[in-house]
Amino acid sequence: MNRAPSEALRALFAKTWIEDELRLAQAMQSADARRVLQTLHRVKGALLTLGEREAADRCDRLRDAIETEGVAAATAALCRFRERVGAIAADVAGVDHVERPSDA
């Protein structure tokens, strides 16, 4: 039986995405592959909890790209991912957008 995530869980995702995106932006800026991979893993778990399988699958593809090609090669895809997850966070929070750090 699939149940929609609770209001509290949705609010928590929107709040933690702000922190995760900042962590991701900083890791991207410093080309810290380990931190990018850790953050993507964390975000994937949160996305799966919300039932966002497509975005969670994108985490796996990004992780594979970073492991084989490095952070610099995946920057454009990571920026698109950040935009997509930001839109999910805004949607679950019921707002037009979630404040985001400047792009790395």
Question: Can you describe this structure?
Answer:
With 104 residues, the protein is an all-alpha fold. It is 74% helix and 0% strand. It has helices at 7-29, 33-50, 53-69, 75-93. The mean pLDDT is 88.
Concise structural overview:
The protein is mainly alpha-helical. It has 4 helices and no strands. It has helices at 7-29, 33-50, 53-69, 75-93.
Strand and helix layout:
Layout: H1 7-29, H2 33-50, H3 53-69, H4 75-93
Helix pairs in contact: 1-2, 1-4, 2-3, 3-4
Report the principal-axis shape: elongated
Q: Give the domain tally.
A: 1
Total of helices? 4
Point out poorly predicted stretches: none
- Biggest β-sheet, characterized? none
Q: Which class of secondary structure composition applies to the elements? A: mainly alpha
What portion of the residues fall into strands of 2 or more residues?
Answer: under 5%
Number of beta-strand segments: 0
Element order, helices and strands? HHHH
Euclidean distance between termini CA atoms: 40 Å
Tell me the radius of gyration: 13 Å
Helix share bin: over 70%
Say what oligomer this is: single chain
Mean pLDDT value: 88
